[in-house]
Amino acid sequence: GQHPLDVEFRANLSGNPDASQRNLSIEVLASDLNVAEGFDDYEHTQASGPWTHTPECIHSDDKTEEYCVYTNNSFAHGRGISFFTSPTIAVRIAELSAFTNQSVHDNVNNFEDPPWEVRDIPGKGNGLFATRELHRGDLILADTPVGVLQSDAFFLDYLIGYRYLHTAFDRLPDATKDLVMRTAAHSPGDPYMERINTNAFAGEFEDKPHFFLYPETSLINHDCRPNTLYYHDTSTLIHATYASRTILPGEEITITYINILQPRSERRAVLKQTWKFDCQCSLCSRSTSSNQESDTHIARINHLQTHLSDWSPTSIATPAMAEELIKLYELEGIHAAIGLGHMLAALAYNADGDVSMAKKHARLALKGGVVTDGSREKDEDDLRALRESPMTHWSYLARKIQELEGRMGKGRC
Ligand SMILES: C[S@@+](CC[C@H](N)C(=O)[O-])C[C@H]1O[C@@H](n2cnc3c(N)ncnc32)[C@H](O)[C@@H]1O
C-alpha cells in the first residue's frame, strides 16, 4: 500500500506525451473530428445497469479497448454523475453501494450551514475560509464526484475523447453543469478539459487510473503544510475532507495537491507545471535557511518511512526510528501523517516484542486516524487487532525472528 503523501492526487490529463507510445492500434490523430477515421461511434443496444441515458461508446480500431459514457442523472439525490470508462468497470460500478443503497448519500452534498465561506483572494482566486473553530477530525465538507473519467479513454484520440467528455457533462442536470462551470480553469482551452486539469483528483478506480471531479472540494487551495486531510470512499464515492489540526475562524482551509515530502524546489516546479502558480504557501515563503532545514527533515522523513515500511529480512527498522519519525512529523507540521507515524511505531515495537509500547501506539494511531492506501477500514482493522492481541498479530517479533533467521542462515553457510 502507498501512503497518501506519496501519491500525486492531481495531475494533468490532456496532451499526455505517452499517448503515442502506447501500444494501441489506432489511426493517426485526425485534425478534424469529422474526418477522424478508425473509430466507430455507436450506441450500445444492450445497455443495462443504473444508467439514465444510453451509453455512448468509442473503441480502438482492433476493438481491444472500449470506453463509454455512462450517466445517472439522479445519482446522489439528483446531483447526477457521468463516467467515461470501460464496460467491464461500469458493471462493477453498478454494484457499488453508491448505486445500490441511495441512503449512503443522505448527508453529503449538503452545504446549508458549512463551517466555511468562499472568499476571493488576490492571486489565488476563490478559496475556503473557516467561519468557526474546527478541531482535528471535524468534517469540513463531503461531496460526490460529478465526473469520473478513465485517463486511458483519452489516449485513443484526444479530440474524440473531448467530444465524449462533453457528452458526459452535457448529460448532467443543469444545476450540476453550473457547479462544474463555477470551478476554476487555470488555462484557456476546452472548458471541461481545463476544469478537469485544474481540479480533478487522480486515483485508481478498479485498478485503472481515473480522474474524479468534485465541484465543492475543487474550491480548496493548496498549501504544502495543509490543515486538512481527506478520504475517498471507493464504495460510496464520497470524498470527505476533515480538519487535521485546530483551524481558527478566518483561517484559510487548505489541502495539498502534491506529495509534500519533496524538497521546496521540486514542490514548486510541480505546482507551477500542473497548476500554473508560484507557490507562496506558509512553507514555501519561509526564509532560505528555514527551507533548507525543512528539506533536510523531509529527506530524513522519507528515509525513515522507507525503512519502517520494509518488512524484508534485511530491514534495519527500529522503534527508535519510529519515535524520530513522529517527532519530525510534528516538527514539520505534517499533521495528516501523525496517525501513520503511530501506526509505524506500533508495528515497529511489536516487531521487536515490546507489546506494551505497541499497544500504546496502536491506540494513538487509531485516535489520530490513519490511512495508508486509501482504505481507512483496512488499516483500522489491522490496528485494532494489534491493540487487542499484539502477540497473535502478524507483526509480533517479526523483525526479531528475521534477525535470528538471518544469523542462523549465516551460521549454516
Ligand atoms: C482546485 S483550484 C482551487 C480553487 C480556485 N482558487 C478557485 O478559484 O476555484 C486550483 C487553482 O487554484 C489556484 N491555487 C490553488 N492554490 C494556490 C496557491 N497556494 N497559490 C496560488 N494559487 C493557488 C491555482 O490557480 C490553481 O490552478
From TrEMBL:
Superkingdom per UniProt: Eukaryota
Keywords: Signal
Domain SET: start-end pairs: 114-258
Record bears the keyword Kinase: no
Keyword Signal: yes
PROSITE patterns, per database record: SET (PS50280)
Pfam families listed in its UniProt record: SET
UniProt-recorded name of the protein: SET domain-containing protein
Organism of this sequence: Phialocephala subalpina
